[in-house]
Design a protein that fits this description.
The protein has two domains: about 1-210 and about 385-474, 3-Layer(aba) Sandwich (Aminopeptidase); about 215-265 and about 310-385, Alpha-Beta Plaits (2-Layer Sandwich), CATH 3.30.70.360. The protein is about 35% helix and about 20% strand. The protein has helices at about 1-15, 15-25, 40-55, 130-150, 175-180, 230-235, 240-250, 270-275, 285-290, 300-310, 350-370, 395-405, 420-430, 455-474; strands at about 60-65, 65-70, 75, 80-85, 95-100, 120, 125, 160-165, 190-195, 205-210, 215-220, 230, 315-320, 330-335, 335-345, 375-385, 385, 410-415, 430-435, 450-455. A hairpin with a 2-residue loop joins strand 2 (about 65-70) and strand 3 (about 75). The longest helix is centred in the N-terminal third of the chain and has 21 residues, at about 130-150. The model has no long low-confidence stretch (mean pLDDT about 95). The structure holds the ligand C[C@H](N)C(=O)N[C@@H](Cc1c[nH]cn1)C(=O)O and zinc ion (2 copies). The site of one zinc ion (ZN) has 5 residues, from loops. InterPro entries: ArgE/DapE_CS (IPR001261), CNDP/DUG1 (IPR017153), Cyt/Met_Dipeptidase (IPR051458), Peptidase_M20 (IPR002933), Peptidase_M20_dimer (IPR011650).
Length: about 475
Amino acid sequence: MTDKLEEYFQYVEDNQAFFIEQLAEVVAIPSVSCEAERRSEVIKMGNWLESRMKALGVTVKLAELGDQMLEGKKIPLPPVVLGKYGEDPAKKTLTIYGHYDVQPANFSDGWDTEPFTLVETEDGRLVGRGSTDDKGPVIGWLLCLEAHQKLGIEIPVNLNFCFEGMEESGSIGLEELIHEEADKWFKNTNYTCICDNYWLGTTKPCLTYGLRGNNYYHIEVSGPAADLHSGVFGGVVHEPMTALIQVMSKLVDSHGKILIPGLYDQVAELTPEEEKTYEGLSFKNEDIISDLKSDVLAHKSETDTLKARWRYPSLSLHGVEGAFYSSGCKTVIPAKVIGKFSIRSVPNMEIDTINELVIKYITEQFALTESKCTINVKCEHSGRWWYASPNHPNYIAGSRAVKRVFNTEPEFTREGGSIPITITFEEELKANVLLLPMGSANDGAHSTNEKVNKYNYINGIKLFGAYWQEIANL
Ligand SMILES: C[C@H](N)C(=O)N[C@@H](Cc1c[nH]cn1)C(=O)O
Ligand SMILES: [Zn+2]
Ligand SMILES: [Zn+2]
């Protein structure tokens, strides 16, 4: 099989241009899941995957999840694209999850090029929204399958695909679907693999065994029925935005310490065993400073930075809906504003306990403002943290695959981001999950100029083929 894998690697090398064209085709579909007006594009992207998979001989089922209320409109949820390739009882079965929706992106946010047009730069970056998160990986799996077929190489495992279109917006309905399909579509799953996170740096591949969870909140503060002239009503009425800003300013301090009482009580103690996992990693604080082009790091040592990202909770303020944000000097008093923030959770925090603490604290802080406006705090969506043992055979297969492609041992990392469905897969399918990242630390997922390095994309596709092989060899 070694020769076959070498042949596959050569095929991937020789077909880079085609693989990049394919990425350009999917990046051009602006499948932004959190914008109602772009929902049809998310569905279009799901349909693109369906027909591409059918053309590869994959049995496809579109799981429809019903409707959602967004921006006051009832809109359809995008389908989960389920695929099945091979049902040979002599082979192991691998379930692969990815997402085909993306974060919003506008040229005016500060992109150097149009976000939904893939641009290949001279220094080897493939720039475009979704290139690394998560369209590159999703089509990478399909290109891997196609390459095997073109070369006449047997796929060494049975494949179950699960591609969703709502990961960036709370994975609505997916948990129930996996529960429903655990003994049907996903029956016989031996291992699960997710490619939807990033290397710790830019040179060394890694395998990831932990994720933070995320609770996303809206604080709605309402006052008058309509926006008001601040010359006529300033000083005369209680202003919603004034109360909201006061409350939001009490959530977290400038060093990142969360100010909500009781929130840290649930955080697991750092054990000596865990302490060791921070040793010997390639991570450098200077790399972050150079990638961010600014020294805004909150921690002095590498270990503290990684602990802050991986094993402590964080609270980030994201925005205020209804507030004036354009250039210029509008003098309005907004009638209603919605403050948005989220809390990344870690072992052993529980979603319901976090919600209780948050709502109690915000209610108290709002009362202290003595505002006559009204407040409503809601957890819009939540996802649990996840933590696995990196000693499982699935990780051994991943390590061997990394060695085959990159000729080095992988680093073992945790991730500060969230992939809410990971723990559901583990629990429902009763199979180990491996996070096998393709992208590198400075890809800028969710940010402007998101990219995947051509090196990571091409070698990532090789890695997928090597991993299938190593799973079969276990
Ligand atoms: C790590 C993954 N690629 C990702 O970006 N996940 C998102 C998921 C999410 C959580 N709440 C809202 N979206 C993330 O970590 O933000
Ligand atoms: Zn994302
Ligand atoms: Zn993602």
